[in-house]
Amino acid sequence: MSTNNIYRNAIYLVFVILALSACGTDDPPAAVLQARSLLADQLGVPAEEITIISVEEVEWTDSCFGLGGAAEMCAAEITPGWRVILVVNGQEYEVRSNTTGTLIRSPQL
C-alpha cells in the first residue's frame, strides 16, 4: 500500500470518527423531560419556558426520594434516580425521580 493511500485512509477515518461523534446527542434523559413536564403542569406554564439548570444521577436512600412525610410509608431501599434543578420565571425548583421518570416528587410542590 502506498504512502498516499495510507494518509488518505487515515484522513478518511478521522472524518468518519468526527462525523459519528457529531451524531451524539445532548438531549436530557426521558426522566428529566418527564420532571420538566410535571413541573409545567403543576405551575400551568409551557414546558418550553422551564430551563433545565442541572441534572444529577443519584441513589436515593428510600423509595420516596428522601421526601416522605410522617404519615407516609417509604421502602428503606436504595432507589436510583435523578435530581433535576429547573428554573421558571426566576424561581428555582428541585425535582426528584426514579430512573425512568415514572415516579416524580418535588420538595417545593
Please tell me what the overall shape is.
globular
> Termini distance?
67 Å
- Unreliable residue stretches: 9-24
Order of helices and strands, N to C? HHEEEE
- Provide the structure class: alpha+beta
Gyration radius (Cα, Å) is 21 Å
Give the proportion of residues in helices. Answer: 25-40%
Strand fraction band? 25-35%
E-strand count: 4
Q: Could you describe the largest sheet, including whether it forms a barrel?
A: 4 strands, antiparallel
Number of helices: 2
What is the count of distinct domains? 1
- Give me the side-by-side strand order of the main sheet: 1-2-3-4
Task: Give the rounded overall mean pLDDT.
Answer: 85
Describe this structure in words.
- The chain is α+β, with helices and mostly antiparallel strands.
- It has one domain.
- It is about 30% helix and about 30% strand.
- It has a four-stranded antiparallel sheet with strand order 1-2-3-4.
- The radius of gyration is 21 Å and the shape is globular.
Write the layout of secondary structure elements.
Elements: H1 3-22, H2 30-43, E1 51-60, E2 79-88, E3 91-98, E4 104-105
Antiparallel strand pairs: 1-2, 2-3, 3-4
Which terms would index this structure?
4 strands, alpha+beta, four-stranded antiparallel β-sheet, globular, 109 residues
